[in-house]
Design a protein that fits this description.
seven-stranded parallel beta sheet; 261 residues; alpha/beta; binds nicotinamide-adenine-dinucleotide; single chain; Rossmann fold
Length: 261
C-alpha cells in the first residue's frame, strides 16, 4: 500500500517486534521519519532494518507505562528529530499462557496489563497531543483488539484494557477534533507474530489454532502487514475526515457467528 508521508515524523511504541515493527517499517517505506520506541533493546534492530531499506529512524528505549519516562521520551524525540505528526500507540501485553478466570486473577497481573495497555496509551497520548493541539495538526492511531469489542474467556484484564482504550480513542477524538487532530483505532483479530506462533500457531497447539480459525470467516490468521496497511490509511491524508473510528481488521471474526450450528 502506498501513501505519502514525506516530511512527517512518527512515534511508534512497542516497535521492536510483531505488529509494531511492521507498522514502523511501513510508515518509513512511505516517507515518514520514525521514532522507534520499545522497552526491549531490540528496537535498535527495527531502526537498522529501516535504514537498510533507505529510511530514517532512531531508537528511544522506554516503558510506556511510566508517565515521567514517557514525557522525557517525547521531549527527546521532538528535540532530536522534530515535532511528532503521527503517534501509533501499539505497545501492549497480555497474559500469554498464564490464563486465569476473574475469580483467580491476581492484582499484580491485572495492574501489569492495565498499566501498559491502558495507562500507557493515556500517558503517550496526553503528552504528544498537547503538542499536536498547539500546532493544530497531527494524528493518533491506537492499536486495540477485537477482544475490546467482543471478549473471550480468561483474558479479563486485556479485554477490559482494550475496551477502555477504544472508548478513550473516541473521547480523545471529540476533544482534539476542533484543533485539527484526528484520533482513531485499529482493532486487530488474530495476527501471526512470533508471540502468537509460540502460543498457538504451531504443530503442538494445532487443535487450539484450528478452533480459533473456525471463528474466522476468511479462514486464516491475519498478517502484520494487514494491520500496517490499516495504520497507513488512518495516518494518511486519505483519512482526513475520519476520526473517532475503530477500524476492525479481523478476517470477519466479529461480523457474527461463523460456525454451523
Ligand atoms: N498479535 C495479535 O494477534 C494481536 C491481536 C490483537 C491485538 N494485538 C495488539 O497489537 C499490539 C502489538 O501486538 P504484538 O502481537 O505485535 O505483540 P508483540 O509482543 O509481538 O510486540 C509488542 C512489543 O511491545 C513491547 N512492549 C511491551 N511492553 C512495553 C512497554 N511497557 N513499553 C514499551 N514497549 C513495550 C515489547 O517489547 C514488544 O516488542 C498490542 O497492543 C496487542 O495487544 C495483537
Amino acid at each position: 500500500m502506498k501513501v505519502d508521508l514525506k516530511g512527517r515524523t512518527a512515534l511508534v511504541t512497542g516497535a521492536a517486534a510483531g505488529i509494531g515493527r511492521a507498522i514502523a517499517l511501513a510508515l518509513a517505506e512511505n516517507g515518514a521519519v520514525i521514532a522507534v520506541n520499545d522497552i526491549s533493546p531490540k528496537g535498535q534492530d527495527t531502526c537498522a532494518s529501516i535504514a537498510a531499506a533507505g529510511g530514517q529512524a532512531r531508537f528511544f528505549r522506554g516503558n510506556v507505562g511510566d508517565a515521567a519516562k514517557v514525557n522525557e521520551m517525547v521531549h527527546a524525540v521532538e528535540q532530536q528529530l522534530s515535532p511528532i505528526d503521527i503517534l501509533v500507540n501499539n505497545a501492549g501485553v497480555n497474559t500469554g499462557k498464564n490464563r486465569h478466570p476473574v475469580h483467580e486473577f491476581e492484582d499484580e497481573e491485572w495492574r501489569r496489563i492495565l498499566g501498559i495497555d491502558l495507562d500507557g496509551v493515556f500517558y503517550c497520548s496526553r503528552v504528544v497531543s498537547a503538542g499536536m493541539v498547539k500546532r493544530r495538526r497531527g494524528t493518533i492511531v491506537n492499536i486495540g483488539s477485537v477482544l475490546g469489542l467482543v471478549p473471550i474467556r480468561l483474558q479479563c484484564a486485556f479485554a477490559a484494557a482494550k475496551a477502555g482504550m477504544l472508548h478513550f480513542t473516541r473521547s480523545h477524538a471529540l476533544e482534539v477534533g476542533p484543533y485539527g487532530v484526528r484520533v482513531n483505532a485499529v482493532a486487530p483479530g488474530s495476527i501471526l507474530t512470533e508471540g502468537t506462533k509460540s502460543l498457538f500457531y504451531n504443530e503442538e497447539a494445532r487443535r487450539l489454532s484450528e478452533s480459533l480459525i473456525s471463528h474466522i470467516p476468511l479462514g486464516r490468521p491475519g498478517e502484520t502487514s494487514d494491520i500496517a496497511n490499516a495504520v497507513l490509511y488512518l495516518a494518511s491524508d486519505g483519512a482526513a475526515y475520519v476520526t473517532g473510528h475503530v477500524l476492525v481488521v479481523d478476517g470477519g471474526w466479529t461480523a457474527g457467528f461463523a460456525r454451523e450450528w
